[in-house]
Description:
42% helix; eight-stranded parallel sheet; binds pyridoxal-5'-phosphate; TIM Barrel; alpha/beta; globular
Amino acid sequence: MLQDRLNEVEERIQRAAAKAGRRRDEITLVAITKVFPASVIQDAWALGLRDFGENYVQEFESKHPEVASLDGARFHFVGHLQSNKARRAAELFHVIETVDAPKVARRLDEAGRPLEVMIEVKLSGEPSKSGADPAKLPELLEALRASRNLRLIGLMTMPPWSDEPEVSRPYFQRLRRLAEEYRLPHLSMGMSHDFEAAIEEGATHIRVGTALFGSRKHA
Length: 219
Ligand SMILES: *Cc1c(COP(=O)(O)O)cnc(C)c1O
């Protein structure tokens, strides 16, 4: 079941990469396991997946003991990070994809662990969305450069939801231009329904939940 879905996702990635003239190994599949139990992470690891994404610090804290020893597993935090949870997040995760304020960056740095981070950029006007305004990027970059333990590797975004991938594409293009402007190598963009468009626009990390694990409503 999971193996079949993984095969399908893998084929989609390879087709999109080929269409864009990109190599498969430029793209990291981050399996989004929020809501699902730790056993799902173990099953996915057994099939060869190594990068996992979670949205809630507390939820992952409860799964962590069962997955911490999986060899080579890397855990990405992709949810909204409150500064009062940052220290704990720094202990549990390898990559924090959603830094969106200098205060969060400082708190992560204070944890004293080497971390890779991305800045989450808010490219739509939706008030409910988290992420940094593109105008705030210089300030955030400065806070990250002043940190001792954080290595800024790229930008992440989540376009307004639409089941039509072409609606996401202009947001992916904008994120890519911002990453070029600030010379950042990685782009985390694209989910189950639109990752082909993201790969065509340069995604280095795609975050895929539903296409691998099914609907979260039945988890
Ligand atoms: C849940 C989630 C995903 C995965 O979405 P799917 O549509 O299930 O693939 C990706 N990124 C973030 C930030 C998420 O919260």
